[in-house]
Amino acid sequence: MNTQRLKPIPEKKVNAVQTLVGEMKNSRTILLASIKDLPSSQLQEMKKQLRKNATILIPKKNIMKRAIETSGKGALLALKDHVQENMAVLFSEMDAFELASLLADKKVPSKAKAGQEAPEDLSVEPGPTDMLPGPAMTDFGVLGIKIAIEAGKIAIKEEKKLVSKGQKITQPVADMLSKLDIKPIMSGLEPLVAYDIKEEKIYLSIKIDKKATLEDLRSDFTKALAFAVAIEYPVSETIAYLFQKAIIHERALNSKYNDQTKSEENS
To answer: Is the pLDDT of residue 38 over 50?
Structure first.
């Protein structure tokens, strides 16, 4: 009977797995983040900025899965289903949501690439540019942007929306935004999922959008304030509005009383 000799696992892979397992044992939070479309230079800069808060590693997909299996922790094994390509792994003593919030703060404006979804309506505003007349004028025309030549350079005459929120950015639009030095994409480490070793919990909704959250809070506060004033609920936030409401009612009653008094005197 012939036996096939198995190739030994390369020492490099063994060391990589051991490093990951060691980090898993000595951290509170394991956070998986996407690095898709993230420039290498920006990733290296983020590693420097976050070194006091987290260790960032870029393991291969199969190496990360092997490390999770080797760790032998029950709840952690579910994290294996979320491992993917173009991914960084962050190990930290911070709470998972604190770490995700920190990553949101570290995002920087970047140029758009063809195929990306527009995070909001993208437009060009009227005003001068640093571009000289020539072939570039054709690019403006293709996108329907009205221009003129002012002081020897191209000037945009009217605002023009190039792509709506959620739509794919085309190559001509990406090229134009780049030429105008418009950076509409906030790029950085994008949290995907996190595992809290202390609590033995996996958090799937770990993305932090501070701008959207603040807008929601403002909207909810406005609605709550209007309701509190309507039911005349006295708290520090409503007291000024309740006084104004009382003054308006007082004036309305005085006006009605005066009208009634005059009517009785004339009758």
So the answer is: yes
